[in-house]
Design a protein that fits this description.
Layout lengths: L11 H52 L20 E2 L2 E2 L4 H5 L9 H14 L10 H25 L5 H4 L39
Antiparallel strand pairs: 1-2
Organism: Venturia nashicola
Pfam family, one: Yae1_N
Protein name: DUF1715-domain-containing protein
Length: 204
C-alpha cells in the first residue's frame, strides 16, 4: 500500500522538534568547544603568569643573599681607579646607591628555601603539554611554590607580593601618591555569548 501523501502533515510537530534538536546539538557542541578552549587558555595564562612572578621573586631574593668571600668583588686595580678629568673625580652616582635593594643577613635556612622556590618555578622545567598528568604536576608545583614564597616572606619580614593584589604601593617613593601596578582584570563581556563566535551582529 502506498504511503499517504498527507501522512507527513500529521507529524509536523515531531519533524520540527527533531530538526530543532539536531541543530541545537550541533550549535551547542561547537559553542562548547570554543568556550572550553578559551577558558583553558585563560586559566593556563593565569597559572603561568603566577609561576613567572614567583620565579622572578626567587631571582630577586637570591640576588639579595650575601655573597660568599670567594665571590665578593675584589678591590680595584690601580689602573681601574677613578680617573681625574678637569679636576673632577668620576664617582658612582648617589642616586644609584639609594636605589639598591638591601641585602639579607646570612641565613642558611632562608637560602635553602629560596633555592627550592627557584627549582619549583624554573621555566625550563615546566611542561606545556595539555595532559592530565602534566597539568596535575604543574598545579602541585604551583601550590608548593606559593607555600614556599609565604615562608620566605615570613622570614624576611616582607608583606605579600603587590602583584598578587593587583596593585603596587609606592607611597614612600612618590610622596604619598599611590600608583597602580600591572595586573590582570576580568572585563565583563556584556551582551556577548560564546555562540556569537564567528558571527557578525547585524544592527537592529
Amino acid at each position: 500500500m502506498d504511503e499517504d501523501i498527507f501522512d507527513s502533515l500529521f507529524h509536523l510537530e515531531d519533524s520540527y522538534y527533531n530538526e530543532g534538536y539536531r541543530l541545537g546539538v550541533e550549535d551547542g557542541s561547537r559553542a562548547g568547544r570554543i568556550e572550553g578552549r578559551v577558558f583553558g587558555l585563560e586559566k593556563g595564562f593565569e597559572k603561568f603568569l603566577e609561576m613567572g612572578q614567583l620565579n622572578g621573586r626567587a631571582c630577586v631574593w637570591s640576588a639579595r643573599m650575601p655573597q660568599h668571600p670567594a665571590t665578593e668583588q675584589q678591590s680595584p686595580e690601580p689602573d681601574s681607579l677613578p680617573s681625574i678629568t678637569d679636576g673632577t673625580v668620576a664617582t658612582r652616582s648617589l642616586s644609584e646607591e639609594s636605589l639598591r635593594i638591601p641585602s639579607f643577613r646570612p641565613n642558611s635556612r632562608l637560602e635553602k628555601h629560596i633555592c627550592t622556590l627557584y627549582a619549583l618555578s624554573e621555566p625550563e622545567s615546566l611542561s606545556t603539554e595539555n595532559t592530565e598528568e602534566t597539568v596535575s604536576d604543574f598545579d602541585d608545583r604551583l601550590k608548593r611554590a606559593l607555600s614556599k614564597a609565604k615562608v620566605i616572606e615570613n622570614i624576611v619580614k616582607e608583606r605579600e607580593s603587590a602583584l598578587e593584589h593587583g596593585e603596587t604601593n609606592f607611597n614612600e617613593q612618590n610622596g604619598g601618591k599611590k600608583r597602580e601596578g600591572v595586573h590582570i582584570t576580568k572585563a565583563a563581556a556584556a551582551e556577548k555569548n560564546m555562540e556569537d563566535f564567528g558571527l557578525k551582529r547585524t544592527p537592529l
